[in-house]
Amino acid sequence: MADSPVGRQWMAGLSYLVIAVVLIFVQLLPMDTVPRSWAPPDILLAATLVWVTRRPDVMPILLIAGVFLLTDLLFQRPPGLWTGLVLILTEMLRARAGALRNVPFPLEWLTVGMGIVGITLANRAALAIVMTPQAPLALTVIQMVATILIYPVIAGLSHYIFGISRPAPGEVDAFGHRL
Fold first, then answer.
1. What is the pLDDT of residue 1?
2. Do the beta carbons of residue 111 and residue 100 sit within 8 Å?
3. Distance in angstroms (rounded) separating the CA atoms of residues 132 and 152
């Protein structure tokens, strides 16, 4: 089953789900009770963007929505706000996946980085409009920059461990449609 294109899609989706659950679990572990002066990168966001940019055919929108809605609920963020922003970004990247296939990696990285900056600013603006308490701006900027900087590492790991790479020219999906 895993040798067929449909089986590979299911296995990739299942792999992403397992990675997401592990990352969420690790973030929920009480490693240190003292507040940090820095914010770690959002590895789940970076992994999601790598997988959507590189292989949009294996990342259904409902899977992404379910994972990020779960993170909104578990991390006590406003339910649906970050999920909606991530879905907007992933669908924009999915629409540009064909064009991003033929560009050098730094341009892909720049495109994703601008998307991360955009959704981070939109999230802060939306929370400011409804006067929701937020993390300090410095922590948000640190996390945003760290997420952008870790994108190449996640792309490399996804390629070498999970085989998530750009589709080859002429590659087709399970239904014979060009990717």
1. 47
2. yes
3. 33
Pair of tokens at residue 96: 């540009």
Quickly tell me which residue has 């929505």 as its tokens. Answer: 65
- pLDDT recorded at residue 177: 58
> 90 exposed, middle or buried (CB, 10 Å; 0-12, 13-18, 19+)?
buried
Task: Report the distance separating Cα 40 and Cα 162, nearest Å.
Answer: 23
pLDDT value of residue 59: 86
Q: What is the pTM of this model?
A: 0.89
Distance of CA 112 to the CA centre of its chain: 10
Contact between 85 and 124 (Cβ < 8 Å): no
Q: What contacts 24+ positions apart, CB below 8 Å, involve 159-165?
A: 159/54, 162/12, 162/15, 164/12, 164/50, 164/51, 164/54, 164/55, 164/58, 165/54, 165/55
pLDDT in tens, 73-118: 999 999 999 999 999 999 999 998 888 888 899 999 999 999 999 9
CA within 13 Å, CB half, 1: 5
Q: What is the 3-state secondary structure (H, E, C) of 44-97?
A: HHHHHHHHHHHCHHHCCHHHHHHHHHHHHHHCCCCCCHHHHHHHHHHHHHHHCH
- Tokens (6 digits) for 111: 């495109």
